[in-house]
Specification:
heterodimer, A: 416 residues, mainly alpha, two-stranded antiparallel sheet, 17 helices, globular, B: 200 residues, alpha+beta, Rieske Iron-sulfur Protein, 2 domains, three-stranded antiparallel β-sheet, 5 helices, 20% strand, elongated
C-alpha cells in the first residue's frame, strides 16, 4: 500500500493528521479481492446492510413503542394504524429479522462449503458464530416486545430453558424475569437489551471485518491469492457486484414487505398476551426452528438444552475438527456430498421444529439431530483423513488466463 | 471466472463506445446514480414523515367546550393540542378597556374586534410568545399585570384584557386559535368557522 495523494487540500490536511481517508481508500477502494468471487460472496455485505436496516428501523420504532405490559401491544397497533408510515417501518423491521437470518444462514453455509473457516481464518469464523449468537438473543428479545401471545409464551419457554441448569436454575430464571413469571420487569429489560445488543453486534462486526481484511476473502477455489494477477481492487469491481446483488435482494425483501408481510409471522401474535392461557401450538420464529427441533429431540430437560446450545458451540471448534488442508468443497468430492446432506438435514430439522412433537416427527427429529452432530463430530474429522481431494489449480488466474484444461468445468460449477 | 474475464475487457475497452464525448459507461453510471438517488429519497421520506403528528394525534386536534357555566368575569383553561387555551368571559369594563386603547400604543397592533368573535368571549392560546411559559391571570388571586390581563412570571411580560402584549420581552400578542361557536354556549377550538372565521 502506498499512501494515496488526495486532490482536495482539506482532505489532505485532515488525512495527514488523522488518516481516515487513507484507511477508507485502503479497505474499500484498492483492497485487493480475489478476482473469482461468485455471488455467494454477496451475503456478507447483505448481512451488514441488514444490520444497519434493523438499527435504523428499530430506532424509529423505539420512538413510538411503549415498553409496558399495559401499553406495549396497543402501542404496536398504533404504529401499524396511526403513525405515518408506521406499518411500513414495522414490517421492514419485522421481516428484516427474517431477511437478516436468511442472508446470514446462506453466508454461513457458503463458509462451510468453501472451507472459509480454515486457517488462517479461524478467528474470522469464530467471530461470525459470536455474531450469530448475539443475533439470536436480539431477535428473541425483539419478538417479545409486541407482547402478543407468541411473544409472551415464547419468552416463557425460552427463559425456562435456563431452569434446566442444576442447582441454580430456578434462581437464574427468576433473576431473568425479575419476578415470579414473565411480566413487566421482563419486558422492560428485554427492551433495554434489544436496543443495546445491535450496537454490540456492530462492534463484533467491526472485529469480523478486521479479521477478514487481514487475509482477505476466501474464494470459490479455496486457494490463496498469489499476487496482483489473482486479485481485483474492491472498487469498482466488488462494490458494483455487491450493489447488483443488493438490488436483487431488495426486490425480494420488498416483495415480502409489501405483498406478504406476515408470511414469516404467527397469527397468534396478534392476540394480546394472556398469562393465563397458552396457545394450542406454540412455535418459535422460523430461524429458531432447527434449534428448537434439537431441543425437543432429547427426552430429558437438561439434555435437550445442552444439545441445543452444543449445536451452535460445535461451530466454534469446527476449524479444528476439519483438518483437511483443502478448503473448497469443489475439490472435495465426498465432503461436497455430505455438505448437501447437512443442508437437507438442517431443513428437515426446521420442518420438524415447525410440527408438533408427535408421531413420526419425534423419530425424524431424533435422526436429524443425531445426523447433525455425526456430521460435525465424526464425518468431518474422518473425511479430513480419508478423503482424496482433487488436484488444486496452481493459482486463481491460471485457469482463466492460461486457458488450462481445468477451467471450463470449474467455471460451470461456479455458475450457481 | 466470468467476472474476471469481464473485468479484463472492461479495463481494456471501457471507452470504446464513446459517442460525442460521452461513453456508454458514463451514461450507465449517470442513469444508475439517478435511479439510486430517487430510490434513496423515496425510502428516506417515510423515515422523516414518521416523526410528524400521527393520525391519532391529528384526530384530537379539535376540542369542544361548553362555556355556559362560565360566569361573567370568570376564566377557564382547557387543554388543546397539548397546550392551555384560556377562555375568558369578559366583563363590560374589560371589553371597554381593550377597545379604548389606541392601536399606535401597541407593540403588535391589533384591534380587539379582530381578536374576539363575540366581545364577551376572549379565547387565547395561553402560551407566552416570548419563550413559551404559561402567563398567570386565570384566577382572581393571580397577578394580572399592569394592564389587567395576564402576567408572565418567567420574564415579566404584561398582557392586556385582549391578551395583547403591552410591556416586557414578548414580541407578539397571545395567539388567538381557530375557533367556532357551534351554538351560543358551545365553542369548538381548532375548527375554522364558516366565514373563514379565524379571528387571528
Amino acid at each position: 500500500m502506498s499512501a494515496p495523494v488526495f486532490k482536495n487540500p482539506v482532505v489532505r490536511w485532515i488525512d495527514y493528521r488523522m488518516p481516515v481517508f487513507t484507511f477508507l481508500n485502503h479497505e474499500l477502494n484498492e483492497y485487493p479481492t480475489p478476482r473469482n468471487l461468485s455471488y455467494w460472496w454477496n451475503f456478507g455485505s447483505l448481512a451488514g446492510i441488514m444490520l444497519v436496516t434493523m438499527i435504523v428501523t428499530g430506532i424509529v420504532l423505539a420512538m413510538h413503542y411503549t415498553p409496558h405490559t399495559d401499553y406495549a401491544f396497543q402501542s404496536v397497533e398504533r404504529i401499524m394504524r396511526d403513525v405515518n408510515y408506521g406499518w411500513l417501518i414495522r414490517y421492514l423491521h419485522m421481516n428484516g429479522a427474517s431477511m437478516f437470518f436468511i442472508v446470514t444462514f446462506i453466508h454461513m453455509f457458503r463458509g462451510l462449503y468453501y472451507g472459509s473457516y480454515k486457517a488462517p481464518r479461524e478467528l474470522l469464523w469464530i467471530l461470525g458464530v459470536v455474531i450469530l449468537l448475539i443475533m439470536m438473543a436480539t431477535a428473541f428479545m425483539g419478538y417479545v416486545l409486541p407482547w402478543g401471545q407468541m411473544s409472551f409464551w415464547g419468552a416463557t419457554v425460552i427463559t425456562n430453558l435456563f431452569s434446566a441448569i442444576p442447582l441454580v436454575g430456578e434462581d437464574v430464571v427468576s433473576w431473568l424475569w425479575g419476578g415470579f413469571a414473565v411480566d413487566n420487569p421482563t419486558l422492560n429489560r428485554f427492551y433495554s437489551l434489544h436496543y443495546l445488543l445491535p450496537f454490540v453486534l456492530v462492534g463484533v462486526v467491526v472485529l469480523h471485518l478486521v479479521a477478514l481484511h487481514r487475509f482477505g476473502s476466501n474464494n470459490p477455489l479455496g486457494i490463496d491469492t498469489k499476487g496482483p494477477q489473482d486479485t481485483l481492487p474492491f472498487h469498482p469491481y466488488y462494490t458494483a457486484k455487491d450493489m447488483f446483488g443488493l438490488g436483487v435482494f431488495l426486490i425480494f425483501y420488498a416483495l415480502v414487505v409489501f405483498f406478504a408481510p406476515n408470511l414469516f409471522g404467527e397469527p397468534d401474535n396478534y392476540i394480546p398476551a394472556n398469562p393465563l392461557s397458552t396457545p394450542a401450538h406454540i412455535v418459535p420464529e422460523w430461524y429458531f426452528l432447527p434449534f428448537y427441533a434439537i431441543l425437543r429431540a432429547v427426552p430429558n430437560k437438561l439434555g435437550g438444552v445442552v444439545l441445543m446450545f452444543a449445536s451452535i458451540f460445535v461451530l466454534f471448534i469446527l476449524p479444528w475438527l476439519d483438518r483437511s488442508p483443502v478448503r473448497s468443497a469443489r475439490f472435495r468430492p465426498i465432503y461436497k456430498i455430505f455438505f448437501w446432506i447437512l443442508v437437507v438435514d438442517c431443513v428437515v430439522l426446521g420442518v420438524v421444529g415447525a410440527n408438533p412433537p408427535e408421531g413420526n416427527w419425534v423419530a425424524i427429529g431424533r435422526i436429524a439431530t443425531i445426523w447433525y452432530f455425526v456430521h460435525f463430530i465424526i464425518l468431518v474429522p474422518l473425511l479430513a483423513r480419508l478423503e482424496r481431494p482433487r488436484p488444486l489449480p496452481a493459482s486463481i488466474s491460471q485457469p482463466v488466463l492460461a486457458g488450462g484444461g481445468f477451467a471450463p468445468a470449474a467455471a460451470r460449477m461456479d455458475k450457481a | 471466472m466470468v467476472h474476471g474475464a469481464e473485468a479484463v475487457r472492461g479495463q481494456a475497452g471501457g471507452h470504446g463506445h464513446g459517442e460525442g464525448g460521452g461513453s456508454r459507461r458514463d451514461f450507465l453510471i449517470l442513469a444508475t446514480t439517478a435511479v439510486g438517488a430517487v430510490g434513496a429519497a423515496s425510502v428516506l421520506w417515510p423515515f422523516i414523515d414518521q416523526m410528524n403528528p400521527s393520525a391519532d394525534v391529528l384526530a384530537l386536534s379539535t376540542v369542544e367546550v361548553d362555556v355556559a357555566p362560565i360566569a361573567v368575569g370568570q376564566a377557564i383553561t382547557v387543554k388543546w393540542r397539548g397546550k392551555p387555551v384560556f377562555i375568558r368571559h369578559r366583563t363590560e369594563e374589560e371589553i371597554k378597556a381593550a377597545r379604548s386603547v389606541a392601536l399606535s400604543e401597541l407593540r403588535d397592533p391589533e384591534a380587539d374586534e379582530a381578536r374576539a368573535q363575540r366581545p364577551e368571549w376572549l379565547i387565547l392560546v395561553g402560551v407566552c410568545t416570548h419563550l413559551g411559559c404559561i402567563p398567570l391571570g386565570q384566577k382572581p388571586s393571580d397577578p394580572h399585570g399592569d394592564y389587567g390581563g395576564w402576567f408572565c412570571p418567567c420574564h415579566g411580560s404584561h398582557y392586556d384584557t385582549s391578551g395583547r402584549i403591552r410591556r416586557g420581552p414578548a414580541p407578539q400578542n397571545l395567539v388567538v386559535p381557530d375557533y367556532l361557536f357551534a351554538s351560543d354556549t358551545v365553542v369548538r377550538i381548532g375548527e375554522v368557522g364558516p366565514a373563514g372565521g379565524a379571528a387571528a
